[in-house]
Specification:
Strand content: 5-15%
Largest sheet: 9 strands, mixed
Distance between the termini: 18 Å
Oligomer: single chain
Structural class: alpha/beta
Radius of gyration: 24 Å
Shape: globular
Number of helices: 22
C-alpha cells in the first residue's frame, strides 16, 4: 500500500503526536493513577464517607501518605520528548516516519527501525543515507528476534502491520514484546491491522468475524455494537442472546466486531495472557503452589462452568469454541445447494482457524498448553476449597489467617482472592492499560480498511514494589496505614479495567464508580479518518 497516502499520513502524525503527549504531559501523566490519587480517596472518605469510612481513612497519617507520594514521584518522573526511545518497522522509506518523529521532538539517535526483507532493507539503507538522517539505526531482522537477545526497552513501539490480526506476521510480534517486556513503563504501543478482504478471501473474512464474536461473546461488558464502539453494554447472554445470535449481528456490522476484537485482544495479552504464561513457568510458581502446574487437576465442575457460565471465564471461553461447528466435514454433509455447501465447509473450518489463532498468543506456540495454563491459573486464583490443597505453606498461612469480616468494607469487601491476585501480579509483571490515554482510528489505505490503536501501558510498580513479598505480606497488610494505601491504589486501577477485564483485581473499589472524580474509565469510539 502507498506509504504517503493522505489518510495514512494524517493517522500516523495524529497517533504519534498522541503517544508522545501521553508520555510527556505533566498535567495528565500516563500512569493509571497520579501522585494525588491516594490523597483524594482519603479526602473523599473523610468528607462524604460513613462514620466508619472516616475512621479508617483517618488512620492513614500524613507522614505515611507523604512517604508514598514521594516514592511515587521518584519512580514515575515524566520524561522529556528528547528522552523517548522509539521502535518501528522500516519499510523501504524509513525517513518518512523519522521525519514525522523528528518534527515532534524525537531525536533520530533514539530511533530504531526494523526490516527483515533483504531487498527492502537494502532500499531502506540507501534511502536513509540519502536523507537528512544518515545515522539512524536500521536493524536487519525481525523485531521479535531482536528482543530475544537484546534487553533494550522502548518508550514507543509502532507496529504498522499490513496484515490482519490473525496473521502469523502480526500477533506473535505483540506477544514477544509483552513476553520480553520490551516496552518501558509507562509506554505506548501502536498497532495497525488490516481488515480481511471479503471479496478476495471470503473464508478468512467470515472466520475472522466468527473469531471476533467468539472472543467478545463471554465478555461481561462489550462496547456498543453500533458505529465504531464506545459506551458499553452487559454480556449478550443477559439479553438472552446466544453466540449464534451475536454472529448474525456481527455479519451485519463486521467493522464493529473487528474493531472491538483487535482492541480487546491486545489489552488482554499485556494484562493477563502473557503474564500468566510467564508466571506458570517461572521460579515464582513454587512460592505460591505446592505442585507444578502440570500436576494441578481441574475438578469436573470447573469444566462444566466453562460451558454453563462462559462470562465467569471470559478469556478462556473466548479462546475456546463457543460456536456449534464440527471439527471436520465429509461428503455426507454436502447437499445439492452449492451456496449451502460452501457455508458448511467454512463453518467446519472455524475450529482449526481458532486453534491457529490461539497458537499465535502462546509464548510456546502451543494452543493446548496455553489454554491449560490459563485454566489452571483461573482455577487457583478463585475462592474455592478445591484450590486450597495446592497452596504453598506461605500462601496457606495467609489464607488461614485472612478474616475478611474483620476488615472494613468500603465499596467492596477485601477478600483473600484479591490478595492472591496482587501477590502473583507483583512477580508476573503485567502491563495495565490506561483507558483514558488510549485511542483508536480507522482509515482507508487504497482498498483496505486499517484499524490503528494506541495503547498506553503502565506496569504499576508504585503498587507492586510498595508491597512486601509473600512471606512478609501478612504482617504488612495488618498495618492499617499500609492496607489503606494498598486498597486506595487498587481502587484507581480498578476504574480502568472495570468494563474490560474481570480476570484480575475484581471487587477492589473503595469509592463507588459513579462518584464525581472516581468514575469508571471508558474507551472512546474509534475515530474514522476521512480526507478529500
Amino acid at each position: 500500500m502507498a506509504y504517503n497516502e493522505e489518510q495514512k499520513n494524517t493517522v500516523r502524525e495524529e497517533t504519534l503526536k498522541s503517544a508522545i503527549k501521553a508520555l510527556t504531559d505533566t498535567e495528565a501523566p500516563a500512569t493509571l493513577i497520579d501522585k494525588t490519587y491516594v490523597r483524594r480517596v482519603k479526602d473523599f472518605l473523610m468528607e462524604k464517607g460513613t462514620g466508619q469510612d472516616k475512621h479508617f481513612a483517618s488512620l492513614l497519617s500524613e507522614d505515611t501518605l507523604l512517604k508514598w507520594e514521594n516514592y511515587f514521584e521518584l519512580n514515575n518522573r515524566t520524561k522529556n520528548v528528547g528522552e523517548l526511545k522509539v521502535a518501528y518497522f522500516s519499510g523501504p522509506n524509513p525517513e518518512n516516519d523519522i521525519r514525522v518523529l523528528n518534527n515532534l521532538g524525537i531525536l533520530p539517535e533514539n530511533v530504531w527501525a526494523f526490516e527483515s526483507e533483504n531487498q527492502i532493507y537494502t532500499a531502506a539503507v540507501m534511502a536513509a543515507l540519502e536523507s537528512e538522517f544518515p545515522y539512524i539505526k536500521i536493524h536487519k531482522g525481525k523485531i521479535q528476534n531482536f528482543l530475544q537477545y537484546s534487553p533494550i526497552r522502548f518508550d514507543i513501539i509502532y507496529l504498522d502491520f499490513c496484515a490482519t490480526i490473525t496473521s502469523i506476521q502480526t500477533i506473535p510480534v505483540v506477544t514477544a514484546i509483552f513476553e520480553k517486556q520490551a516496552l518501558n513503563s509507562p509506554g505506548a504501543l501502536i498497532t495497525n491491522f488490516a481488515y480481511p478482504n471479503p471479496q478476495l478471501n471470503p473464508e478468512q473474512w467470515l472466520n475472522t468475524i466468527k473469531l471476533g464474536v467468539n472472543y467478545l461473546y463471554p465478555k461481561r461488558f462489550t462496547e456498543s455494537f453500533e458505529d465504531l464502539g464506545g459506551d458499553w453494554s452487559e454480556t449478550q447472554s443477559v439479553f438472552g442472546n446466544t453466540p449464534e445470535d451475536v454472529l448474525e449481528l456481527g455479519k451485519e456490522n463486521p467493522f464493529n466486531i473487528y474493531s472491538q476484537f483487535v482492541t480487546r485482544v491486545i489489552m488482554d495479552l499485556g494484562a493477563y495472557i502473557v503474564p500468566v504464561q510467564r508466571f506458570t513457568k517461572s521460579f515464582a510458581w513454587k512460592l505460591f503452589f505446592n505442585q507444578p502446574s502440570a500436576n494441578v487437576n481441574l475438578p469436573e465442575d470447573y469444566n462444566m462452568s466453562l460451558v454453563e457460565f462462559p462470562d465467569n471465564h471470559p478469556i478462556i471461553s473466548g479462546l475456546s469454541n463457543l460456536l456449534p461447528f464440527k471439527d471436520g466435514y465429509s461428503d455426507a454433509d454436502l447437499t445439492d445447494d452449492p451456496d449451502q455447501d460452501i457455508e458448511a465447509i467454512i463453518d467446519n473450518d472455524f475450529p482449526p482457524f481458532l486453534e491457529k489463532f490461539v497458537k499465535l498468543l502462546s509464548t510456546d506456540s502451543n494452543a493446548e498448553t496455553l489454554l491449560d495454563k490459563l485454566k489452571k491459573m483461573d482455577f487457583l486464583m478463585d475462592e474455592n476449597d478445591e484450590a486450597e490443597k495446592y497452596y504453598s505453606d506461605a500462601l496457606n498461612k495467609i489464607s488461614e489467617n485472612w478474616d475478611w469480616e474483620s476488615l472494613h468494607v468500603f465499596c467492596d469487601v477485601f477478600l483473600f482472592h484479591q490478595i492472591k491476585d496482587v501477590l502473583v501480579r507483583q512477580l508476573s509483571v503485567p502491563y495495565h492499560y490506561n483507558i483514558e490515554a488510549s485511542k483508536r482510528w480507522v482509515y482507508q489505505a487504497q482498498q483496505t480498511p486499517m484499524f490503528q490503536d494506541l495503547f498506553v501501558f503502565d506496569d504499576c510498580r508504585y503498587l507492586y514494589d510498595w508491597m512486601p513479598t509473600i512471606d512478609m505480606f501478612e504482617n504488612s497488610v495488618t498495618v492499617l496505614e499500609r492496607q489503606m494505601i494498598l486498597r486506595f491504589i487498587l481502587d484507581g486501577l480498578s476504574k480502568h479495567r472495570f468494563y474490560y477485564n474481570s480476570e484480575f483485581l475484581g471487587g477492589t473499589a473503595v469509592v463507588s464508580n459513579d462518584k464525581p472524580g472516581f468514575e469508571v474509565k471508558e474507551l472512546l469510539p474509534r475515530k474514522h479518518i476521512q480526507t478529500d
